[in-house]
Amino acid sequence: MLRHVAGKLGGAVAGVAAVVVLGFFLFRMIPGDPTVTMTRGRQVDEAQIAELRALHGYDRPIVEQFGKYVGGLLRGDMGTSLFYRRTVAELIGERVGPTLLLVGTSTLIAVTLGLWLGIRGAWRRDSLFDRTSTGVALLGWAMPAFWLGMLLSMVTGDLFPSGGMRFSSTPPGFWPQALDVAHHMVLPSLTLIAVVYAQYQLVMRSSLLEEMNADYLTTARAKGLRDDQVRRRHAVPNALLPTVTLVFLHIGLVVTGAITVETVYSWPGLGLLTYEALAGPDLPLLQGTFVVLAGSVIVMNVLADLLYQVLDPRVRAS
Amino acid sequence: MTSIVWQRRRAAVSSTWREFTRNRGGLVGLVVLGVVVVLALLAPLVTDATGLDVTKAAGDRWQPPSGEYWFGTDHTGRSVLLLTWWGSRISLLIGLTATVLSVAIGTLVGVTAAHFGGWASAGLMWVTNFFLVLPSLVLAIALSTVLPRGIGTIVLAIGVTSWASSARLVRAQTLSVEARPFIERAKVLGGGHAHVIGRHVLPAVLPLVFVNTTLTVANAIVAEATLSFLGLGDPSMVSWGSMLRAANLHGAVSQRAWWFLLPPGLGVVVIVLAFTLVGRALETVLNPRLRGDR
Amino acid sequence: MVGAAALVVVPLAPPVQAQQPVTLRVAIVQQIDSLNPFLAAYQASTEVGRLMYDYLTAYDAKDQRPVEGVAKSWEKSADNLTWTFTVPDGKKWSDGQPVTARDVAFTYNLMMTDPDAATANGSFVAGFESVVAPDDRTVVIKTTAPRASMLALDVPIVPEHVWKGVGKIADFKNDTAPVSSGPFVLSEYRANEFIKMKANKDYWRGAPKYDELHFVYYKTVDAAVQALGKGELDLVNRMGPAQFDSLKGKSDITLNKAQGRRFNELVLNSGAATKTGEPIGDGHPALKDVKVRQAVAKAIDLDAIIARVNGGYAERGTGLIPPVFPDYHLTPAKAWPFDPAAANTDLDQAGYPRGSDGTRVGPDGRPLKFRLLGHASRAYDEQAGEYVKSSLAEIGIAVDVQIVADTLLDEYSVAGKFDLVFSGWGTNPDPDFILSLHTCGARPASPSASGTTDTFFCDPTYDELYAKQGAELDQAKRSELVKQMQQRFYDQVPAVVLGYDSALEAHRNDTFASFTIQPDPGGVIMAQNGAWGYYGAVPAAAASGSSGPSGLLIGGIVVVVLLVGGGVWLLAKRRGATAGDRE
């Protein structure tokens, strides 16, 4: 068991390391000299450019630059944004909270909704409920999140704020602020839920269907257990495990949705920061958000994997 | 020998087809796809591409739908109907090409990993798993930022980031095929790697790959729309994603220009749904366990 | 349980309407790079800076002439090298200390000695020999050469008693309760969310007529326009033509179409080179021929671009200085007509015959195929590019429009690796900076260095006139020199000024009745050369605290519904479970 955990953690470290390497070399591929961007519109002579280049280490061999970059990352230093002229770490730090709030709330609701619909659908297979809910789920899944977002904000009119996380004029204090944030969060989280819950529902539905064909359910029914007891005590718990793993496996999809949803609703999170970094492009910032987003998804997956080991006795035993 | 094989395959295909036609959703999806593809191909024959040129735009800006412009006009006075029509070509083109690339990489990696085994396989599977969990859009964004704008970049960005699930699927299938006795026989009879893979493994794996393809296309079309929406598409081409970007940029929401927002978005939804329905139907056909006991 | 908790929530939401301060809420779409006035270079940052800190002199709201800022009066010596400014008694910093001449001297001297402090506004003190304050009321500035722009020193004056204690200027954020002297003081700054300011009740010009000024971040102008429609905002600027049109006819919104300070131009690579004249880049040789450039100027249909791309909200371009500054704006003696036929004839005669495919060929045998670079971030470039392409096709010039990332575009244009490129500038009341961009000295020092120029224009006549206007202290004579320079620029066509964008603004009239515009008439509310727009805003009679209590209510309802729904669901589950277990 311990060896297994160590192996998983090792895998996580390797995964994050791969993200870091990818992040570094990917953004070196771009043609162009970052010092020119830094000095645009200013009269700068060759000596000053050379000085800038030396300051940022652009004149060093690529391996040495990479070493410096990794060293910086370990200290939490991800460089300085070209356009904000502030450190990337500081910018990302400001944006983590709102993204966690939005993505966390939406995932929680989406998972609950998806699992519930999936269970009901599987149990009443091919009923009107099953067909409608599967159809609606597929429809949501087919929609680009940003499009749904634009539609929702057009349709709801003045009911919800057009964007942002809070009004500047909301009085301080916990309740007014919390209610204001909740009010702002309705549309973004609705959008995010609508496009992601389908996968949970469909996976839950099909894995429950597979469970229901299993022999032990027939045995259980033969023992005289009522249908809903069979469902709740045997089929659902067994079907739940693979679904929960998939929830975490698909967290990357939620992150993807967050980028466009935050863009449409000006939600001040990491997704919006990524979008803003695209405009320049602001490479140091983009590199930072890439490493943070991809790295955290990988870590989440390993955590889910470990959780799965703990929860599922079958895996634990082997 | 070959004729028997062909006969057998033809029989298999036609039974699959019969099975498929029993799935109403899949059939509807297939018909819709056919219509959309034919329309997209016909665009240059029945419409005039000069209507896409902003300098030749004849209409007023932001006109709601009317007899003259069925879907209204955009921020430059071009017909939204025409833009959506032509946009379908780029969206489909990118979706399909990216899928071919993605599935090709996936199949190559999957077959290699399963067939050769050993360290190479372990390495390949590690890379596959890495790409599987990596948020593909984030990587695609990074790729399309550093490469020059254009269709090729988008195709590459989508293809290179979305192959992992096909690779895993293909590997599993290859392993189960190679476990069968006739492969052993072929190897004993002196069949090389190329023979085994080309004659036995690929034919057995391809149907599954095909199913997977339909689902990948759906993903690729959404990915194209997303990348173009974020401004990473080819600015000189009209695609559904670039139309939605323009809608967002030029204020379609604030002026309630629903006619500019609905057509490209619905286009994406319809195509993606159609591909998904077809894919699910195929999956049901090829995976009998999911077939209902109606 | 959960449902009960939700019920407690409702009475906790306070009655919001009680005693709200009267607040002006303004959309801000661009980034703030710093609130430290020595570092703040972005337009949005300097705009906030103007509210916090007075400059030595200000620009009049009506006609932009120099008026009282920190200094009330000034005089210059006979040789035009020494300027004496008088700082009157009675102006106070927000901590109650008096504003003195020593603060002025401290600010300028800091910029002259500390390179970090010169980051944003160093060019203003570049020609200063010395700045001294012999007493609390007098500042004496000596310059090395006569300078026409001494009453246009856009430098925020900071309090010496605060800033002398600041260690490293480059690391000082200045975002928590800074001491300032302007009409508003900073009260709260949340990066990417909002900047809150409070009215300075002791401001020497008189207190503003409302309590608070909030700048609220919006990522796109479109989002801001929606917010304005919903009443979440009071004032929006930088609108696109479509957004502006969409607000027409709404009774609670007042539109302001003002003369802007920005222009868009199409730069022609007339021969990129370094200061020493060493050619750089790979510009098309045909563009070195002034006849080709003039033909391009005649072939581009400015009116079509203004009508279709600017939505009619722009004026035809001529010189480098927009009509909002009438003293310097050029009305050419002989404007280029839009005349593709004449342009064609000119090119035929100049030795550029059409090839078999209709594209003209130069004397060197090279076809006239130009690359046109545009910014990926600017919608204007994409659309206008199509117009330039089709216009030039009429005269046998093929154009390949390339929309590229801004960083890449900068790199290409700095290195002269372009034929045509879109560019644009905002101009100041003093024309010196915008004129200086096209002097020989603005070119890069060496092939790998960067210069300030975008045209690489280097013309002895222009440079001579530039030197003269910089030292000319007579307004009428200076205006004449400036116009001559622009005429030279116009005739030589290193760039075609396409149009001067109108500044499109809108405000709600149910919350704020009026704003001071600059210049008056025809001027802007935001992005002024001063802070008159915000300072002079008059709340509408009925306007009380305009926060959205309905918004809080909806937020509350959503939370309650979620909690109650969750509670009911849980209860139902629990009941179902116990019922099942009992059996």
The domain tally of chain B reads 1
Question: Which regions of chain C are unreliable across 5 or more consecutive residues at pLDDT < 50?
Answer: 1-18, 545-549, 577-583
Shape descriptor of chain C reads: globular
Summed up, the helix count of chain B is 11
> How far is it from the N-terminal to the C-terminal residue of chain C, by CA?
26 Å
Look at the structure and name the CATH superfamily of chain B.
MetI-like
Please state the structural category of chain C.
Answer: alpha+beta
- The count of β-strands of chain B is 0
Low-confidence stretches of chain B: 289-294
Judging by the overall fold, what is the CATH architecture of the largest domain in chain C? Roll
Order of helices and strands of chain B: HHHHHHHHHHH
What does this structure look like?
The complex is a heterotrimer of chains A (318), B (294) and C (583). With 318 residues, chain A is an all-alpha fold. Chain A has two domains: 19-77, no CATH class; 95-317, MetI-like fold (Orthogonal Bundle). Chain A has helices at 2-26, 34-38, 46-56, 62-74, 88-123, 128-142, 145-155, 174-212, 215-222, 227-249, 251-265, 270-278, 283-311, 313-317. Chain B has one domain (15-44, 79-290): MetI-like (MetI-like fold, Orthogonal Bundle), CATH 1.10.3720.10. Residues 1-18, 545-549 and 577-583 of chain C have low confidence and may be disordered. Chain C folds into three domains: 1-19 and 551-583, no CATH class; 31-217 and 511-540, D-Maltodextrin-Binding Protein, domain 2; 262-502, Roll (Dipeptide-binding Protein, domain 3), CATH 3.10.105.10. The chains are: A mainly alpha (318), B mainly alpha (294), C alpha+beta (583). Chains in contact: A-B, A-C, B-C. Chains A and B meet through α1, α6, α7, α8 and α11 of A and α4, α5, α9, α10 and α11 of B.
